[in-house]
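Quick log. Single chain, no ligands specified.
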Amino acid sequence: MAVGSSTSTPPTQTATAATAAKSASGVAASMNADTFLTLLMAQLKNQDPTKPMDSTAYVGELATFSQVEQATKTNSKLDSLLSSSFLSQADQIIGRTITSADGNTTGEVQSVKITSEGALARLTNGKDVLLAEGISLSQ
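-> predicted structure:
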């Protein structure tokens, strides 16, 4: 979002608005609709009445916000698809013998848990193996 693209907002007010946006969202990449609206309202309140905000800059900011929202929705759908893929994998390996990529852990798969790292197979001996490249499966 281009806060500084408006020529009517003084740099100190732009910096203050950007700081408010960062503190409201925690990280600039995780801005949401509320953060955008807060930032937009601060920008509109602090603009010079003799030089109002350029309408093309306003439309550009709305388009950027729309792109961020679409990217967020896409990431959510991809996470869901990935979890579905992991669950499909889990169904196929429960009850089979698995060996970790380094060969140090072997055992029968008792259950599979989906984590942020991927699918994690819990073996009957209590050990965990991340389902990743290099693992071996046998009947």
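The two ends are 54 Å apart (CA to CA).
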